[in-house]
Structures are given as structure tokens and as C-alpha cells.
Amino acid sequence: MENVTHDLANNVANKETTANQPIIIARDVHKWFGHFHALRGINMEVHKGEVVVIFGPSGSGKSTFIRTLNRLEEHQRGQIIVDGIELSHDVRNIERVRMETGMVFQSFNLFPHLTVLQNITLAPLWVRKWKKEQAEKIAMQLLERVGIPEQAQKYPGQLSGGQQQRVAIARALAMQPKIMLFDEPTSALDPEMIKEVLDVMIGLARSGMTMLVVTHEMGFAKAVAHRMYFFDSGQIVESGTPDEIFTHPKEERTKLFLSQILTH
Amino acid sequence: MTTTYSKANILPPPSESSTLWGWARKNLFKTWYDTLLTFFMLGVLYALIRPLIAWAIGKAQWEVVQVNFRLLMVGQYPAAETWRAWLCLYLLAGILGLSLGVWARQKPWLSAILLLSPVLLVFYPDLSSEARNRLLGLALTALLAFAFGRWRGTRLGRAAVILWVLYFPAVLIIIRGGGLLENLAPAVPTSLWGGLMLTFLLTVVGILFSFPLGVLLALGRRSSLPAARWVSITYIEVIRGVPLVTILFMSSVMVPLFLPSGVRPDRVLRAMIGITLFTAAYLAENVRGGLQAIPRGQFEAAHALGLSGFHTMALIILPQALRTVIPVIMGLFIALFKDTSLVATIGLLELLGISRSILAQPQYVSFQREVYLFISLIYWIFSYSMSYASRRLETRLGVGER
Questions:
Q1: By three-state DSSP, how is residue A79 classified?
Q2: What number of other Cβ atoms are within 10 A of residue B322's Cβ?
Q3: How do residues A202-257 score in pLDDT, each as one tens digit?
Q4: Are B302 and A98 in contact (CB under 8 A)?
């Protein structure tokens, strides 16, 4: 019953999503993997245009949480509302949310049997039902934006890691999402290639995209993040602006973690 | 710190030989014991093969194959109607030539050799001039189609696919005859179909229908819908637990039970159904193996982009999975081709069955070696062709590379 009233409320809320309404609302989100309690009551609000960085030790639930936002993982308790749409078992809602969110993975997950251009145009052609010329035009624009237009006809296996991740970003952007989710996008890259991907992400942030980024790259956080959340053992230990987090973290665990990753 | 990256530092590779003599020198004659071993093995091969060749050329009596050639090729198909089998061959030559011209861009001389192979048969002695002319006609048609395909290029790709799709129903209609074609091509009952022609028909229908069924079963087995999963699992495990011969018997005996009395489905149809159902079960497991090899990240990326389950499967997962299992599936189809010999147990006389009928005649009883060697050669030629085509397909699709 609660879901029914919420759906009605959501239909109205959808039309009223203003700059004041958070575009992502997570209320008391819990998730279990079998007996393991991975997410223990996460509460978070993200506003349109905000860049949010989530950091923390491995196993803390950061990736799990970001994956619940586009239903790659199911949450078992609590509410998640993305762009006014509540994520539940309703498949149509899930599809609508996925059309509005783009995701970039740690292991790129490009489609190896398709060229770079085909990778990018696939979803717009088949989900948004664009015409081929239009899709390819947008795809080439995006490839220029991420800096590798000359690679359009190559296969992913022929590109370097940094180039592949930039293609992955272009692929996610091709669907013109409202929110971009990044799950440790640079963790699988060589140091030389990390910069080229971070530059693209910084450019994206400065253009006003709503971004949730799970990362260890504190330089990126300092440059563009509006809020940072420190996850540990499935809970949000502390949150604040980058200034607050870096200069005077309140919690002991935050201080400990920051001292570990900022020394090298 | 001057590191010279000038071209002077780039050296040509050591003169590794890419010639036949160079290869032989490296692999067969490199050291004295290699050379000794090479000569020894050559001696062994000679000792084994010489008697076979001597027998094949000298003492073997190939008349049994010559006299019964038509039987071996088309079974008891009426002699006056064999022009229809030739027609099917001509159509095949045309479509095959066109396909090779459109798609097999590299190594055109290989395709040319394949398409000219009927010319080799022309030199066989004791061939009627009519047959000779027809063989030459085949090669000519194939070459013309090949040239046409090469000239027009990949624009004809779609047309070629449509032609292939239409070819097999057309063959069935031509061979069957009757109905609207009664004046041109009187109906020939399937009990008269036999020989290599029947082998081909059973193989092709088996391949064409078992493939989609197998893929559906594989997807069904992985489905989250309990009904689809249980039906698929039951089907696969039951069919895989039973030998093909038994399935052929059962389809021969039991299919009539499911139909209203008086309707006696065709024996060839029953065999086709049995073969299709059998192959589909094995194919399903192979495809499932291929599906399991796809990393979860592919599904996640597709879902994150908003692709529906159907689109994910059709555009992302199945293309990759099927590419991976091409070698296994081709092996299955090659085995299918040879397993058609089992339909002799339900009274159909395909290549093996008709050979045994021929050998059962009193005047040909002692010619088993000639006949069996001949049909073994035929089986081998086509099995190897399928295997070779499979490898070419893999290279073209970049299997194992991208």
C-alpha cells in the first residue's frame, strides 16, 4: 500500500523536480549479501549538479551502494528515489531510472565484438530509438569531447586502458543521462593514463553534470567535489565538503584512513 | 643522454625461411638424428600406404561404384527425374559462387579451386558425356557467380543471405515436386529418396532447425522463470540420456500416436524430427557453456545502459557467446552429418543404407572394400569441408582475438 501512494506521489514529484529537490534520495538503505550486512542504514541526498565523492576502505560498501542506485544491486530495506522515481521491483521504474543514469565501471566493460563507434551508438539506437546518422553524429561529438575521435573504427581490444575508459565514459554520456555514476573508474589504470581520464571527468563536472564518484583520487575530490562521504563497514562515518574533510575531519576513523592514503 | 632511435638500429629479422625447403630444412633435417627420423618415418609411411594405393589402382574393382553411382547419389529416385537433383546442384553452385565472391575477399585462388572442383571429376573415365557436360556446367556457373559477386562486392551481401534462406525450402520443393508443379515435376514420394542426397537433406534440415531450438533451450535453462527452466532442463537431460538410434525409433513409432489415426507422417519427416530434437539438446549445452563464459560485466554494462533483456541477449551476449562456441558447434554438426547414417535403422536408405543394400546383392557381395572406401571418402570430404569452413568463419569473426 505504501508503494501505491508513493507512486502517485512520485508522478507528481517527477514534474516538480526543481533545483531544490534532491535528484537522488537514499533513506535508511540496508542490503544483505546472504548473512553479510553490506549496507547498514545509508542516508544520502544528492542535488542536481552536485559532484559527490564516496571514499573508504575496500569492503566498506561504496561500490555496493552506488550499484543500488541503478538497481544493479537490490536493496532489501529503505527507499531509494532517483529523479523522482522510486526503485522497487517494478521493472518499468527500473528501466526509467537506468535511462537517466549512466555508469562507468572499474573494468570498463566495453563490448569487445563491436567497434568503438558501435559501442557508443548501440544504446541510443535501440533504447532511445534514434536514427543512425543522428546517433553517429552525437557519438563522434562525444569522442571528440573525450579526446579520441580518431579511434572510432577500432575495436576496444586495440585501445589502451585510458582510451577504453574514455570510450566507456562517452558510451554512458551518449544516452544523455541526468546522473553519472562512476565506480572506481581509474583503479584499473596505469598512473600515466589516470590523468587523461580524470581530466575528462573534471571537464564533465565543470559542465554541471550530477556525478557520484567512488574513487581514491583525492586530487580529483579537492578539485571538483561539492561533498565527500566516508564509508566504512557499510555506514557513512562522516560527510562534508572537501575542505572540511581534508583540513579538520571529525571522526577518528576518517583521520586514520586519510593519513593512510594521503601519505603516498 | 643521447639514445639513438635512428632507423639504423632497426634490423631486419634473421633469415627465417618462409619457403617450403626452408621449413623442411628447419623442421625435418636440422640435426643428423632429425634427418634419420625423417627418413625412417617416410619409410614407414611408404610401407603402409603403398599397398593401399597399389590395391586401389590395380586390384580394386571400382565398377561396383560406377555401376551403382546413381543409386549412391540419389537412391531410388526415378532416373527420369534426376535432372532435379542436378538443378539443385546448379543452384548451389550459383549461390556458393556468389557468396564466396561477396565475402571471401582474400585468397581468391582458394575459392576458385573449390568452385572448379567439378572439373576434376570430368577426367574420371567411363563418364557419360551428358554427365561431363553437366559437371563442366556446374563449374562454369559457379565461376560466373563468383565473378559477379566479386564485381558487385558487399552490396550483394543481403541478397546472398536471402538466397541462402530461400535455397533449402526451394530444394525440398524441387525434390518433392507435385502440387502446383505436377506437370513440370511430378511428386516423388519420400520413400524413394536416398543416397547422398538424402544424407544432405537430413543434415541440412537438422542443422537449420536444431540451431534456433538449441539456443532457445540454452536461454531457457538460464532463465529466471521456473517454468522455462524446468522444461529446458527436463528436455535436455531426457534427450541426452538416450542414444540417437533410440530417438529415431521412438520418433518413428511414437509420432504417429500423437496424431489422429490415419495420418501417417512421412518417414523422412520423422527422421528429421528425431535428428533435430537430438542435436538441439547437445547444442543447448554447448551454447550454455558459451553463455557462462561471458563476464558478468557485459550484462551489467548492458543493463546500466538501459538495454532490455531481449536486446542484451541479441546484441551483446549471444554474438559473443556464439562466437566462442563455433568450434564446438561445428563439431556437433559434423557429427550430425555422419550420424544420419543411423536412419538406416528406420528403413531409410541414405548413403550408408544404400551402400549396404547394394552390397547385399549377390553379384556385389565381395566388393565391400571398394564401396566402403568410396563412401568413407565422401564422408571425409564433406566433413573436412565443414571443418575448414568453420576455421575460416572463426578467423573472419575474430574469434579468440577480440
A1: strand
A2: 18
A3: 999 999 999 999 998 899 999 999 999 999 999 999 999 999 999 988 989 899 89
A4: no
Residues of A in contact with B398 (CB under 8 A): 113, 155
Distance from CA of B329 to the nearest CA of A (A): 19
Most B CBs within 10 A among A92, A115, A126, hence the mutation to make, goes to A126
Reported as a single tens digit per residue, the pLDDT across B303-325 is 999 998 899 999 999 999 999 99
Half-sphere exposure of B213 (CA within 13 A, CB side): 18
Window 262-301 of B, Cβ < 8 Å to A: 295, 297-298, 300-301
Q: Reading across the β-sheet that carries A36-46, which strands appear in turn?
A: A36-46, A24-33, A77-82, A85-86
DSSP code for A234: T
Tracing cell 576455421 back to the chain, one arrives at B391
Taking every pair of Cα atoms in chain A, the longest distance, rounded to a whole number of angstroms, is 55
Q: Largest alpha-carbon pair distance within chain B?
A: 96
Lookup: cell for B241: 540420456
Tell me the chain A residues in contact with residue B315 when contact means C-beta distances shorter than 8 Å: 122, 126
Residue A190: strand, helix, or coil:
coil
What is the spatial distance between Cα B389 and Cα B8, in angstroms, rounded to a whole number?
44
Residue from the list B303, B315, B402 with its beta carbon closest to the beta carbon of A155: B402
Which of the 8 DSSP states describes residue B105?
Answer: -
CB A110 within 8 Å of CB B301 = yes
The angle, 0 to 180 degrees and rounded to 10, between the axes of the packed helices A161-173 and A116-126 is 20
Buried b (16+ CB within 10 A) or exposed e, B268-300: bebbbbbbbbbbbbbbbbbbbebbeeeeeebbb
Partners of A123 on chain B (C-beta within 8 Å) are: 305-307
8 Å CB contact between A247 and A83: no
CB A211 within 8 A of CB A179: yes
- Name residue A40's beta-bridge partners: A30
Is pLDDT larger for residue A42 or for residue B54? A42
Element (H, E) at A213: strand A210-214
Q: Which of A139, A118, A107 is nearest to B315 (CA)?
A: A118
Output Rg (C-alpha) for chain A, integer angstroms. 19
Could you report the per-residue pLDDT of B90-99, keeping only the tens digit for each? 898 888 888 8
Of A13, A216, A215, A10, the residue nearest A93 (C-alpha): A10
ipTM value, please give it: 0.88
